[in-house]
Amino acid sequence: MTRLPFLFAASSALAILAGAAAARDTVTVALQLEPPHLDPTSAAAGAIDQVLYSNVFEGLTRFMGDGSVVPGLAQSWEISEDGLSYTFTLQDGVTFHDGSTMDAEDVKFSLDRARAEDSTNAQKALFADIASVDVVDPLTVKLTLSQPNGNLLFNLAWGDAVIVAPETIDTIKTAPVGTGAFTFTNWVQGDRIDLARNPDYWGEAPALSAATFKFISDPTAAFAAMMAEDIDAFSAFPAPENLPQFEADPRFQVLIGSTEGETILSINNKQAPFDNPKVRAAVAHAIDRQAIIDGAMFGYGTPIGTHFAPHNPAYVDLTGTSAHDPEKARALLAEAGLANGFTTTLHLPPPSYARRGGEIIAAQLAEVGITAEIINVEWAQWLETVFRGKNFGLSIVSHTEPMDIGIYARPDYYFQYDNAAFQDLMAELTGTTDPDARTKMLQQAQEIIANDYVNGYLFQLAALSVAKADLQGLWANAPTQATDLTVVSWAK
User: Fold this and answer.
1) Number of H helices, E strands in the chain
2) DSSP-derived secondary structure letter, 101
């Protein structure tokens, strides 16, 4: 008679434990920046990809955590001998989250939309060499190029190249519909975005049944939320000074890796007096990179002297070209007719590297006679005023797109650098497939922009994330700005 209650209690305890275990298939990841909208194909905001890349939207190819490019919605491809045509065979059985079939017509629509004359795609240049996109059959699409492009498979892995459904374009900014392992379910603006496992996913099902992206902009609040375990992880943790406390706490793990984020002091090359290379050089020599890394990032970051990631084999250390030399900076200003200095604006978006780094840079510029009026802006304002409007003198931003030195070949890009020789070099690079020749061209490109002092090159942003100790599968490195949850799970 006494065994029944015992068995009941034991079975109840097992049920409770099973319920607890079942609850470990959801995750809450915090980010500092909230996306301005949810269409990765029509904005420069990396915060969109941070939530949606690979999770909700997919492209023909995709980046992995180690930076490699692998098949995505395309299971394979064939390249013609002359390099002018790529024939992609698509994965079979892929559907969009609304239940409609994803096929070659959707690929054609997406790429034609991205490269169209009226395209608002922030990386439209990625598609410039595509002459035509032709549907061969529902699972085969052929891209014909106007010239060989050794970067094509790499370019198609960007978030700007994901495949979208024509019938969902009108609502894509608030209700995105992709083909990924997770479906979008809810967006409480100013608070969170919720995703749920896609039961009809064409690939391997994710371990997580649901995920929430929580937006916490204040570094102090980020620390408090993580310590209280209100969140499971914080990707791109905004308060590096707190990392030693997490490292010493067995409840947490700290992930320190590399990113593609060249953090720069952007300079408006067409706005006087920055249209004078001597003034840009003076700005560059006024900057003490290590003081910025130590003061704004608490030592996390690698000094750079050009717009290129130090972990790339083609990287050239050009920090000496713009070494900290206030006396030289003042002499250059005098040569430019600005011995008494000048006043300009310094637009700072929300990230800690910008706000904290901006205060330090403003003080460094003041030492050589340059008064930088700090203007703190939210991302939407930065995109409107700086990126699109080009109405700024200086700004600070981390360019997180992979291998993006090609932006310097675009005179209409927001810092408005116009160098025909550089543009020709980039065009030649695009048509070159020989690895050694490409390396030499990339090194030459780095030297050109460093010697032209196009921007103030500060540091390569480190990937700094904090997570609960038993959460596994998060990217340590950030080959693109993304929080890929497709392989994230809780340790058993």
Assistant:
1) 13, 19
2) B
- Identify the CA nearest to 152 among candidates 122, 115, 126: 126
- Which range among 43-52, 191-200, 332-341, 376-385 shows the weakest confidence by mean pLDDT? 43-52
Is residue 50 scored above 60 in pLDDT? yes
In angstroms, the Cα distances linking 389 to 116, 214, 268 are: 21, 30, 11
Tokens representing 21 are 């275990």
Cα distance from N-terminal residue to C-terminal residue, the chain: 36
Q: Are 312 and 409 in contact (CB under 8 A)?
A: no
> What span, in angstroms and rounded, lies between the C-alpha atoms of 29 and 215?
9
Long-range contacts of 65-69 (CB under 8 A, 24+ apart): 65/475, 65/476, 65/477, 65/479, 65/484, 66/477, 66/479, 67/402, 67/477, 67/479, 69/153, 69/154, 69/157
Quick one: pLDDT at residue 23? 60
| Backbone angle region of 428, left / alpha / beta, with phi > 0 → left and psi within -120 to 50 → alpha | alpha
CA dihedral 294, 462, 160, 356 (to 10 degrees): -20
Residue 348 β-bridge partners:
376
Decide the pairing of beta strands 370-376 and 342-348: parallel
The answer to whether the CB of 365 falls within 8 A of the CB of 330 is no
Q: Residue 361: its pLDDT value, please? A: 98
**Arithmetic mean of pLDDT, 36-57:** 89
Quote the CA–CA distance of 395 and 101 in Å, as a whole number: 44
pLDDT tens for residues 325-367?
999 999 999 999 999 999 999 999 998 899 999 999 999 999 9
Closest by Cα among 460, 346, 342, 359 to 395: 346
Amino acid present at 253 = Q
